[in-house]
Write a structure and sequence with these properties.
With about 350 residues, the chain is α/β, with parallel strands linked by helices. It has 2 domains: about 1-140 and about 315-345, Quinone Oxidoreductase, Chain A, domain 1 (Alpha-Beta Complex); about 155-295, Rossmann fold. The chain has helices at about 40-45, 100, 150-165, 185-195, 210-215, 225-235, 245-255, 280-285, 300-310, 315-320, 330-335; strands spanning about 1-5, 15-20, 30-40, 60, 65-70, 85, 90, 115, 120, 130, 135-140, 175-180, 200-205, 220-225, 240, 260-265, 290-295, 320-325, 345. The protein binds zinc ion (2 copies).
Length: about 350
Amino acid sequence: MRALTVVPGTPGSLDLAELADPEPRSGELLVEGLAVGVCGTDKEIVQAEYGWAPPGRERLVLGHESLGRVRTAPDGSGFSAGDLVVGVVRRPDPVPCGACARGEFDNCRNGRYTERGIKELDGYASELWCVEADYAVALDPGLAEVGVLMEPTTVVAKAWEQVWRIGGRAWYEPKRALVTGAGPIGMLAAMIGVQQGLEVHVLDRVTSGPKPRLVEALGATYHHDDVDDVASKLQPDVVIEATGAGSLVFSAIRNTAPFGVVCLTGVSSSVRKTQVDTEGVNREMVLENDVVVGSVNANLRHYRQAADALAQADRDWLAGLITRRVPLESFEDAFEPGPDDVKVVITLDGGD
Ligand SMILES: [Zn+2]
Ligand SMILES: [Zn+2]
């Protein structure tokens, strides 16, 4: 079978390899890959800035945003041939820490977790892959075209869960949410906000292309003005920050409504310094009981929440997020930015 592999730490090492077909071990599903999504983490791995090969190996099979169809499943696993499935990205650390021991590996304390396609475990960018039945999640059979959006949806399902749990420390009826960044994470965060009945606003820089249209189609409001202007006018109860840009992060913190929750999901990559009025931030946060929370990855509960969110969503709208589908043999194209990209996926099943 063909697999997209990389030597972590070595620039220019991304390559299509011919590997032996995987053999499912006890308790594992054998899955035919349909597609993998490409995100910033994949690009960082390809650019040799991140990623670890499995111990004793040079190459890592890339791909953590999976979608496949079960070929074989063990009896009693709850899966059968033909099921649409996604593989979970993270596995608990071997110690395990207290969080991992309780299934909360997304909150691992010792950093010794592993991740498919990222950290010491092969990913899902191959024509066939295996996954433990306990770390596979079934999708609604109608999601074959868009189920590759599942993994980024788990990330925002967790982010929203964190927001509601934090809000739950006192009376909480949030009305208005601002999402900063209209990439796949921002769009899916907006989708879940709308599903939860909030008035949702999305801020991004672009004024053309698919993003404004996709936001409006959701029943949300698109903004492209300065973040201070937009946020100070809106006074959102919730901000889901999906850019990692320091200026947006601190503008969001300064402009929430009282009891505001700002959830940070974007990882800053630049070393650019932002001037911050630290005393003003402190004053605002204390006097309004505000919370800023970071959120990364997702556990099995969030995968189930995401599967429900996708099953409820409009399929055409989800399909509109996938702005390019690149066949496996043209993998290089998937790592070149396109002008109107939202989500780019690599197809693994010979289709396009
Ligand atoms: Zn990703
Ligand atoms: Zn752990």
